[in-house]
């Protein structure tokens, strides 16, 4: 099938239709490449249980790291070396580490929100990128992105669109605007690494751990060069940019579209701040805001598929896949199957209640990818989205600018409203 256009317009809807017609394995042609698609709960269970040695990330991701002189980054390696790097980075990317300094996280969100006067407008994505990137940068790398935020956004957008989604031609990397942004981005990374070499923190952060590991023989392939150390240390500034910031944007969009759910979430937010600052347990507790976040991750996944290369010949659902074949794991097709989620395109936070627990069915819920590279920051991301939204709802009331106009989700490189979804501050509540 040469159906790139249909795919581009709504990738998951297209894949859901193909899955319903063809079953859990089929082929498509897109962007001059052929992909084998593994879709639906059967594929999700297969990849989780038996996929560890069957897929490689290397071919898909290495070009992105090499753009910054950094081969063998965490996402671009497989097998034992990948397990070793994941183990090294896990403590820093954990939810308990992110939530270790809740006053800092709240202060960052509060400072950004308080910058806006009643009546001022801003793209929701810009608002959330400001908050999320500073929170992750300060908590994991002891550095605020400050005026470098735009350089980070430009660098990552070009890098991913050229090397990963391949929707942008490579000559775009020669544009002076990109080259300037990349230079600033890498200079910030070098500054962070240099600062960590000469200062000591009470609690070691991600960069401290990277620097320590870079001295060990077993990490030489991954962290042996200065470029690799800088690239890995910049991870926190990239981790939330397209992910948590876009999910916060989609969540706010759904809340403004569902005023009753919004009011319940405002109540939860006020409770969280009723005795000062929320605790780790409160942020991670099951409540309406948590369920709204979960439903947003189901309906608006920023990673609807993950791409890989088959690492060996294998058989799935009676079909053989050959080593070297491009594979797309359509992890979120199951999010739209009525057998798991009745009326699947409806925003319904009741799905996560004790009685229904629709997401707990096997293979049904995969917003954070699947297999060996499953999101290392999943717990941190969920907590961050809840905390950011709770802080915002507690502090201010927002309304959508031009609510009648139709918003289009584009791929840039992840599904996003871009800057089209604008909000207005209509009241400062606290
Ligand atoms: C809602 C927000 C997020 C979503 C939906 C998300 C999704 C994903 C997905 C799908 C992958 C796997 C990509 C692949 O297999 O090709 C991934 C990897 C990763 N994510 Fe996230 N992510 C989110 C937020 C975060 C945050 C906030 C952090 C850091 C605190 C983070 C850290 C990572 C890391 C380090 C990896 C690489 C793991 C590896 O290669 O082993 N993510 N994420």
UniProtKB/TrEMBL annotation:
<dbReference type="GO" id="GO:0004497">
    <property type="term" value="F:monooxygenase activity"/>
</dbReference>
<keyword id="KW-0408">Iron</keyword>
<keyword id="KW-0479">Metal-binding</keyword>
<dbReference type="InterPro" id="IPR002403">
    <property type="entry name" value="Cyt_P450_E_grp-IV"/>
</dbReference>
<dbReference type="InterPro" id="IPR036396">
    <property type="entry name" value="Cyt_P450_sf"/>
</dbReference>
<dbReference type="InterPro" id="IPR017972">
    <property type="entry name" value="Cyt_P450_CS"/>
</dbReference>
<dbReference type="InterPro" id="IPR001128">
    <property type="entry name" value="Cyt_P450"/>
</dbReference>
<protein>
    <submittedName>
        <fullName>Cytochrome P450</fullName>
    </submittedName>
</protein>
<dbReference type="InterPro" id="IPR050476">
    <property type="entry name" value="Insect_CytP450_Detox"/>
</dbReference>
<comment type="similarity">
    <text>Belongs to the cytochrome P450 family.</text>
</comment>
<keyword id="KW-0349">Heme</keyword>
<dbReference type="GO" id="GO:0020037">
    <property type="term" value="F:heme binding"/>
</dbReference>
<dbReference type="Pfam" id="PF00067">
    <property type="entry name" value="p450"/>
</dbReference>
<dbReference type="GO" id="GO:0005506">
    <property type="term" value="F:iron ion binding"/>
</dbReference>
<feature type="binding site" description="axial binding residue">
    <location>
        <position position="375"/>
    </location>
    <ligand>
        <name>heme</name>
    </ligand>
</feature>
<dbReference type="GO" id="GO:0016705">
    <property type="term" value="F:oxidoreductase activity, acting on paired donors, with incorporation or reduction of molecular oxygen"/>
</dbReference>
<keyword id="KW-0503">Monooxygenase</keyword>
<keyword id="KW-0560">Oxidoreductase</keyword>
């Amino acid at each position: 099938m040469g159906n790139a256009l249909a795919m581009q317009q709504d990738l998951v809807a297209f894949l859901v239709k193909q899955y319903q017609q063809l079953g859990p394995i089929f082929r498509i042609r897109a962007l001059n490449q052929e992909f084998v698609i593994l879709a639906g709960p059967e594929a999700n269970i297969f990849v989780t249980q038996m996929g560890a040695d069957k897929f490689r990330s290397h071919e898909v991701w290495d070009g992105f790291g090499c753009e910054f002189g950094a081969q063998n980054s965490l996402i671009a390696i497989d097998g034992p070396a990948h397990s070793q790097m994941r183990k090294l980075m896990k403590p820093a990317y954990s939810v308990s580490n992110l939530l270790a300094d809740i006053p800092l996280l709240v202060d960052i969100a509060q400072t950004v929100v308080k910058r806006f006067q009643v009546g001022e407008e801003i793209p929701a994505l810009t608002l959330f990128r400001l908050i999320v990137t500073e929170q992750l940068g300060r908590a994991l790398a002891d550095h605020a992105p400050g005026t470098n935020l735009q350089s980070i956004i430009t660098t990552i957008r070009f890098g991913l669109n050229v090397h990963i989604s391949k929707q942008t031609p490579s000559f775009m990397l020669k544009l002076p605007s990109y080259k300037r942004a990349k230079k600033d981005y890498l200079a910030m990374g070098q500054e962070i690494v240099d600062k960590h070499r000469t200062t000591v923190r009470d609690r070691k952060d991600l960069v401290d751990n990277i620097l320590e590991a870079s001295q060990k023989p077993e990490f030489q392939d991954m962290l042996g060069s200065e470029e690799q150390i800088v690239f890995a240390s910049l991870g926190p500034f990239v981790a939330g940019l397209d992910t948590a910031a876009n999910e916060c944007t989609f969540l706010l969009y759904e809340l403004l579209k569902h005023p009753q759910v919004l009011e319940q979430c405002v109540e939860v937010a006020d409770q969280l701040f009723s005795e000062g600052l929320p605790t780790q347990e409160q942020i991670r507790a099951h409540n309406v805001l948590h369920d709204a976040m979960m439903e947003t991750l189901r309906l608006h996944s920023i990673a609807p598929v993950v791409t890989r290369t088959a690492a060996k010949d294998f058989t799935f659902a009676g079909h053989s896949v050959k080593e070297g074949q491009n594979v797309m794991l359509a992890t979120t097709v199951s999010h739209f199957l009525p057998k798991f989620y009745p009326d699947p395109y409806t925003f319904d936070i009741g799905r996560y209640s004790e009685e229904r627990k629709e997401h707990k069915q096997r293979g049904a819920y995969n917003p954070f990818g699947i297999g060996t590279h499953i999101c290392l920051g999943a717990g941190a991301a969920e907590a961050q989205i809840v905390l950011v939204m709770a802080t915002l709802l507690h502090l201010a009331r927002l309304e959508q600018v031009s609510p009648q106009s139709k918003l289009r989700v584009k791929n840039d490189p992840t599904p996003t409203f871009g800057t089209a979804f604008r909000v207005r501050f209509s009241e400062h509540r606290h």
